[in-house]
Amino acid sequence: MSQPDQHETIVVTGVAGFIGSAVARRLVAEGFRVVGVDDLSTGKLTNVPPDVAFVQADVSSAESVRLLPKRAKAILHLAGQSSGEISFEDPIADLEKNTVSTLRLVEYARASEIRRLLYASSMSVYGATPDAPTDESAPTTPLSCYGVGKLASESYLRIFVGAVSSTSLRMFNVYGPGQDLDNLRQGMISIYLAQAHRTGHIKVKGDSRRFRDFIYIDDVVEAWFRCLCLTQPHEPVLNIGSGIRTQVSDVLELITALMPEVTIETAAGTPGDQFGIYSDNSRMRAALGMEQLTTLAVGLRTFWQSVRNTQ
Question: 146 an active-site residue?
Answer without folding.
Answer: yes
